[in-house]
């Protein structure tokens, strides 16, 4: 089992940057695929980015490609989401999630992830 805690959210102007962190507990952190999802008011939770265990292969949603970068530091049990060129449409609660089965083919499906953090609010003003 793993516990996840997000941090780094806040209020930023359009065009600005934020770096979100997802700190995990548990010695098996490097065995999990870790993803970021987000949920805006009145909308469904949507996939943002994911990083595999092991060799750290990444994937991201088209809406954030070229602006957001996911990375992980297994020694620090932490996953990061660097967000640049932020837009008002990026406003949402951002969640990190862990998949112990690391089913890469289902990496964008929220239902595959067993463990979730409490979320961190990101607000981008125009």
Order of helices and strands: EEEEEEEEEEE
* Total beta-strand segments: 11
Question: Spans with pLDDT under 50 lasting ≥5 residues?
Answer: none
What structural category do the secondary elements indicate? mainly beta
What share of the residues lie within helices? under 10%
Radius of gyration: 13 Å
Mean pLDDT: 95
Q: How far is the first residue's CA from the last residue's CA?
A: 40 Å
Shape: globular
What fraction strand?
over 45%
Number of H/I helices: 0
Main β-sheet: number of strands, strand sense, barrel status? 7 strands, mixed
Explain this structure to me?
The protein is mainly β. It contains no helices and 11 strands. It has strands at residues 4-7, 10-13, 18-24, 33-39, 46-51, 58-60, 68-73, 78-83, 92-99, 115-116, 120-125. Strands 2, 4, 5, 6, 9, 10 and 11 form a 7-stranded mixed beta sheet that branches. Strand 7 and strand 8 (78-83) form a beta hairpin. The protein is globular. It starts with a strand and ends with a strand. The model has no long low-confidence stretch (mean pLDDT 95).
Secondary structure layout:
Elements: E1 4-7, E2 10-13, E3 18-24, E4 33-39, E5 46-51, E6 58-60, E7 68-73, E8 78-83, E9 92-99, E10 115-116, E11 120-125
Parallel strand pairs: 2-11
Antiparallel strand pairs: 1-3, 3-8, 4-5, 4-9, 5-6, 7-8, 9-10, 9-11
Brief sketch in words of this structure:
By secondary structure, this protein is mainly β. Helices cover 0% and strands 47% of the residues.
Core attributes:
126 residues, globular, 0% helix, seven-stranded mixed sheet, 47% strand
């Amino acid at each position: 089992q793993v516990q996840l805690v997000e941090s780094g959210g806040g209020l930023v102007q359009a065009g600005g940057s934020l770096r979100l962190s997802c700190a995990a507990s548990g010695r098996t952190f490097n065995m999990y695929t870790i993803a970021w999802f987000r949920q805006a008011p009145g909308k469904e939770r949507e996939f943002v980015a994911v990083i595999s265990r092991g060799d750290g292969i990444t994937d991201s949603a088209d809406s954030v490609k070229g602006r957001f970068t996911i990375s992980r530091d297994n020694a620090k049990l932490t996953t990061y989401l660097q967000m640049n060129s932020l837009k008002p449409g990026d406003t949402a609660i951002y969640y990190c999630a862990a998949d112990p089965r690391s089913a890469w083919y289902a990496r964008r499906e929220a239902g595959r992830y067993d463990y979730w953090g409490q979320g961190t609010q990101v607000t981008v003003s125009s």
